[in-house]
Design a protein that fits this description.
One of its GO terms (molecular function) is DNA-binding transcription factor activity. The protein has 121 residues and is mainly alpha-helical. The protein has five helices and two strands, in the order H-H-H-E-E-H-H.
């Protein structure tokens, strides 16, 4: 599992880690039943506090992406327990729309930005 935290991104480290794990699960790079690293190990690898990674794992579990069991640790949940991809896309779009508005962009500029990165020249 490759996760990277960019201190200059403006996005909270816990959110960066959470988003990357969700993407890995969604695209199948982390299959159901795959064990995630222990909290302390991942925190040490990323240079973050254990509490930060604990928050990530709690948020992922609350959303149905992972399950935690004492003996097995934190593992990727079966697909049935997760949100559907359309709901995830709407949530990502809502987050982007909020950011675009905060930057003062109108709808046309926001859509143009998405199109520019969707299929670059």
């Amino acid at each position: 599992m490759r996760v990277v935290v960019d201190a200059g991104s403006g996005l909270a480290p816990w959110r960066q880690v959470q988003d990357q794990i969700i993407r890995l699960i969604a695209r199948g790079a982390l299959a159901p039943g795959t064990r995630l690293p222990p909290i302390r190990q991942l925190a040490g690898d990323l240079g973050l506090a254990s509490g930060t990674i604990a928050r990530v794992y709690r948020e992922l579990e609350a959303a149905g992406w992972v399950v935690t069991a004492r003996a097995r640790g934190t593992v990727v949940a079966e697909a049935a327990a997760r949100s559907d991809p359309a709901a995830l896309l709407r949530a990502a779009a809502a987050e982007f729309a909020t950011s675009a508005k905060e930057l003062g962009a109108d709808e046309e500029a926001a859509v143009a930005a998405v199109r520019a990165v969707w299929s670059p020249p």
